[in-house]
Batch of 3 targets.
Target 1
Amino acid sequence: MDRRDPLLRAACRISRRLGGGDGTVEPPHRRGWRAPDPAAAAAEFEAGCGAAARAGRRLSLALARGWSAAGGHAVEEAARAAARVRALARELGPPRRPAAASPRAVLDDLRQLGDEFGGRVRVDLRGGAVVATTEPIVLRDTPLGPFAISLGLSGLSGRPGSECFECEALDPNPASANPSVTHPHVQAGALCAGDAAAPIATALAEGRVCDAFCLVRAVLRTYNPASAYASLDDWEARECGDCGRSVPADRVCYCDRCDRELCDGCTTCCDGCGAPCCGGCLERDDEAGTDCCPDCRSSCERCRRSFQVTGGDGVGDGGDLCPGCRADADADADADADADADGDGDGDGDGDGDGVGEAGSWAGRLVAPEGSPADGGTGDDRGGSGATDAAAPHLVTAPPAANAVEAPAPAAGDRPAA
Amino acid sequence: MKVLFINNDGGGFADHIDVADGTTVARLFAERLPGRHAADYLVRVNRQPAAADQALADGDRVSFTPLKIEGAAGGAAAAARRADVRRAAADWCGR
């Protein structure tokens, strides 16, 4: 046997740890009892013995007095009490300390470990660990990848248990809600062994390292929905970006505008293009009762209302004005067109479309006010209100033609161009 | 004859037991794990896979190890999980 064999060296180290060679001594009252709580089991055993003793005394009294019926009952009661005491004795177990496993036995166990794990076992003497790798674990169609089960040799002193093991996910697919949960029963590398805790502890105490590894692997292969760090039903669930609810991965919706993940309840279709959107990307037109995405809505330049610009019944095809303001603008345009003399709608009466009368002149004739120099007056009489305006000629418009538009009255002080 | 029997299901104790001559692995399994299915266990005799009809010999080492065992979450995680379930139920009722 090669003393440099890593398995042999690991076996010697494990045997030394389990044998208490480092000076660790288990308290006598805890040493080797089968019952998890020896004190409680002993109290129950004492009570059972007392009940059996009382039944025995009643039986003796009944026999002494010839009470056959009472004696029969006493016999049955004593038998039941005795059976109970025997059961308590089995549960309590005889005090014994597990024999320290020899290096040879541990070596055989480590070799068996290689067989059970298909050769995927390695010994890290420097790190003080034995590592076995499982096959890829799949629970309820959820792939979790293979796990490296690592037994730390330093933890084998005292009362070794499942806490001596670490389970590292080699191809992690953690729970979406908690990245440290790589398996329903593994968090941050620590296994919660559940029903396997007791047999793992016993196996390690007896040096049955292979059995302990196999038990850990059995836990990794099993899903206990009643007690898991994360449920497999929500393993790949996503969080709705609007309401925060957990959504199964196969039922997630996405906002077509901002790619936010949404649940069914928070997804609304744009009334313009029909694209699914989140609440943040849709804006409501309270007057029309529609919800539209940014591509299907615009803001009115006049009233600042948000309105639909595409789709449907052609509502709001007027671009920057909402339907209401567009209707108002159209009405104004129609009114302007009606007042245009040449029908061209510019109101200047000369048909050139510039809105100004012929050769820049007003559409009308000037009439000198009474008393003005043009009227033969001195022009100095400025009395009365509005005296400034009284000296200026004022415009008298000609009777409007059939399609003419009334020219605006000149402001005070304005003089018509020559 | 005596065999070293290792039951890794439940208590996980190892003990020398008396078995009748000619006892097979299947018979011992049925006696020690009544109502269970051998297919759910790693059955090893002297650290090697064993057939159901293999007869045991004096001094054999027999182990039965379950292939699946239910684990658990830690106390705080289980309590948090229960709170989440209650909260989800309340939300559902509120809808």
Target 2
Amino acid sequence: MSVSYKVEICIIFIITLLVFVLGVAILGYGRQTGYVLHGYMIALTAGWGLVHLINRANEPEPKLPLEYNDAACKWGVLACFGWGLIGFTLGDILAWQLAIPSLNGDMFWSNFGRIRPIHTTAVIFGFAGNALIATSFYVVQRTSRTRLASEVLPWFVLVGYNLFVFLAVTGYPMGITQSKEYAEAEWYADLILVFAWVGYLMLYMRTLARRAEPHIYVANWYYMGFIVVIAMLHVVNNLSMPIDISYAKSYSLFAGVQDAMTQWWYGHNAVGFLLTAGFLGMMYYFLPKAVNRPIFSYRLSIIGFWGITFLYLWVGSHHLHYTALPDWVQYLGMSMSIILLVPSWGTVFNGILTINGAWDKVRTDPAVRFMMVAMLFYGLTTFEGSFLAIRPVNTLSHYTDWTVGHVHAGALGWVAFMTFGAMYKMVPWIWRREGTYSLRLEAWHFWLALSGTLIYVGAMWNSGITQALMWQTYDANGNFVYAFIDTVEAMRPYYFARAIGGLLYLIGACLGAYNIYMTVRGPGMAPAPAAQRPVLQPAE
Amino acid sequence: MSTRHQKLERSGIGFAVSILFVASLGGLFEIAPLFTIENTIEKVEGIRPYTPLELAGRDIYVREGCYACHSQMIRTLRSDVERYGHFSLAAESMYDHPHQWGSKRTGPDLARVGTKYSDAWHVAHLANPRDFVKGSVMPGYAFLLDQRLDTNHLKGALTAMRRVGVPYTDAQIANAETDANRQADIMADHKQDLTESYGDSVQVRDFDGQPTQLTEMDALVAYLQMLGTLVDFDAFDVEENDR
């Protein structure tokens, strides 16, 4: 057994042991049911990992085949679709709760306030996060022409990450939350994510270091940006002081205005680096592959990448226009938001023009259609984002459904469309299938998803602008025309429309999941030809 | 540009470090100064740490995810100020760990909801919103009336809050549990102890209409009733605090 292999297992063992001790401490000292259950969950998962590591250490070092390692990647695909279906379903339930409020049930666990973060976490971290982890494992190997640098780390990353998502979403209905938007998970779940994430960074950098290609391909820049920046955001925004080990509850380190600014620096860049940079990495690999054309412009890739990496971190304050945040930060955030349109649209053009010469594929291949429309939605959403960051415009969108519509144009139209497009390509490749189970189902999925998104976003545009204008309507004497509740009642038709749009999207996603399932179950192909294998490494 | 960038593309570590450097600038220039520029938080009279009962109520507000539909941030817009009251100051949330400014108003802003309605209205409305506001889409929170407030953790909670910078005294921490019970005492026997400890703005009474027990409803209503009531705006000079 080589030394480095032993050292690696040893380090991972120690970290897993730390997590195990954390779990045991929580289940031993914890005083709330949900918190104790989480202790058991952590201890069981870490304990299972420890047993696995001990077994591995006792076995001789496995002879690695000259093949890419897609085992963890496959489970990532499964987790992506699993969390996706949970997240979409809960999202639509929430939409119906707003249309028909009695659906809240008025029980402690079933109310809107506790379900809503399950929806956002399951979709952002469960669905999108697992899609990124799975595709990044795939992409970094192919673009570096090397096998993943570790046999154990991919599992550590995937299991640790999904344990975090599980703890987060099961905590909210039991009242375990920080109520920091998109960072609701409490301190112990955050801690587990830190471990998993450091493992992810190590794995990624080590795999890149083994690459047989001299240059790091642009998709990897974005995946690296995603991993590095999310680490920074997650750690800073979740700094908090737990009451003690007996309680899940903690108080954030920052307060008031500083906490608000840190929160939106985090919140907007969870969008910028998880939902944008990561998925641009996906786009830069799967779109050129699917249309079999090179990237349109190398220069645009560079400008787009560094523009996004620099500018995004400045724009969070546009979530706090006209608030108690000092004006200079608001104006700075607004200006940077407008400039951000340049690298964003540069990237849109780079993606769209890559399809040049293969536009027939948009017609014949639903996966390409998914990706092409994803780029259009990316363009639409980034334009809308810069527009909404302008202070006067923001008075119409802030606190209203326009923001919700904007987020969903991005999440449904860009993030999920890109994911579906990439998955329809990657799943047959990693499971060695001729193609997906059914192109017809793919097409159905596409049209259901597109009509669902358009209905959803259209409804939210209308409701958001309507409500904001009603809030600002005065009569001739300078009195408000509408009471607040009038503006709530005016939302009802839009809430129904949104719920129906969401339902269409959910049905489409179910068809997609079924299609993927049948593809995996279907007949396989012969082993990969030499061109699709890693390059033999010279002996060290 | 391209040739120099090609060099960078050959180094994984170099690339990752460059990303970290470029990406950290925004936070360094926008967030760090908020801790050092003195007038970021206005100097106003009246701001005080939450009493243990109010803090417990705030924890319930946080636990239920109220921020998903209610903001606590009145903007400087005319339509905000005329509907909800004086625009919010940074000082008013200086002890809010975490802040609950919110991002969505499915329901109205709550930054100054304190003393606008009676306790009885809050209790009945929280239990069954549509009995009072026809067309409301708010869920009901009747279960708070049956849930005894857990006061065991309050000492620890105040200690944790002190560790992140809220100036609770040793006496306030030691009396956390008793203070919580005393604030919801219908006889208000110990009102003076509370006002001496936390200031005159503390409201002492039974909040949930069930004088014999201390429920989560007591805590939540105590919190709602103090929201936005601490600062005396007659003494506030807007010009002096322009940022």
Target 3
Amino acid sequence: MNIQLLEYALKYLQRNFFKNIFIFVVLTLMTWLLASMFFITNSMKYELNLTLDTLPDIILQHKKGGISSTIDESISMQILEIPGVESSQPRVWGYYYFEKAEVYFSILGIDEFEKQNRQTLLNIVDTQNIESNSMIVGQGVAKILEQNYYKEYFNFIKEDGSVMKVYIGGTFKSQTLLESNDMIVMDKNSVRDLFGYASGEATDIAIKVTNKLEVPTVALKITQNYPNLRVLTNEDIRVSYENIFNYKNGLFLALFVSSIFTFFIIVYDRLSGMSSAQKREIGILKAIGWRVEDVLKAKLYESLIISIFAYLLGIFLAFSFVYLLNAPLLKDIFIGYSQMKPAFELAFLVDFQTLFLLFFLSVPIYVIATIIPSWKVATLDADEVMR
Amino acid sequence: MSRRITFLFFSFVAIVSLLIVEMIYLAIFHSLDEKDIQMKSSFSRYIGLPNLAITNTPSLRHASLNSVFDIYSLDPVLREYDKGTYVIFMKKDF
């Protein structure tokens, strides 16, 4: 590194302070905006994909007129006969609209708290006393119920219009807030009663396959045996997760395009030529003995100082904005409007691919945009440039 | 070394240090630890339903289990769950 040239580059930046500070601010803002978008997407994707492997391998749904309908529980026993199927579990779940608070709760029925995976349940709830006639609710549900004076129990309105009183047995732990905020878990028969399901009816069937490589084969066999059922594999869910982000990223793309557009206006401004004062400066430098490579080196230092500092500051601000301030406004693009928003924090994740992408999108492009016009002028005769 | 170069050097060191300190802080206090991940996995395995509870609109809450037509069966006339729906929905004043 040539210290004298670096000193010259710094003096140049100081002489054109306001022009350079403007470019620095725009570059920093662009890096900050793009980095914030990528950080939010990455954290949300990470949260979603974290639990993907724990979900059932195949889910069977029944459609009537293209709309989800109840499924016959007896099908689950027939599914068990397919080689490779480890378990087949009919599930009863659905949504309950609490009109007073204008919110929907997701309600899942399980086979009596005492029998099924009691230890697992105890690990994820705040209470150790779970009665069979009570329900476990997410923290968002508990808050909404409390606001409406239901502190110990809740009166559900059943499908036939009668009232069903269920006691609140506990809440899910805060670590599961992003998954459990709107969930209510209670006895399967109670849920069946609430939704007005007939005996032997279920919402869907969850299937586990012993060898994960066999999932497509098992799914194919089910499709052939039951062409009236909708077969949804874990892979389909993964693809739907991707689609959610592709759609949401489309909204981000609008921001991305405007940032890139602004940046390229600066680049175009730089590439389209230099001012007569800048040209004269290069001409004088050449006249006093500077070589072309000296001029280019000085310009390289100048552009590197602006772009690297802008990049580092942009990334620093993006980390602070997304993970310390929890991305106000930008996060809402993903969450949207909801009466029962969980107050969750985005999980910190360093994605080096994103950091490299942003680096190569800003620093080299700006450096090239500075070097090329300087090179064009520096290769001319000093006499010709100064005239 | 001139004052300008010293200032540039220390500015660079300062911003890189700030970034590193911030990343270390976030990694310690704002990332999911093994216990959190275990808890989420246990919950998800127990419940067996996909998607996050960042919205409680039925057609979006378990979006990966829905088909296009479910939107209409789950939310008839698209009532009261989205900002845009207030354009077509007037709350009754009882």
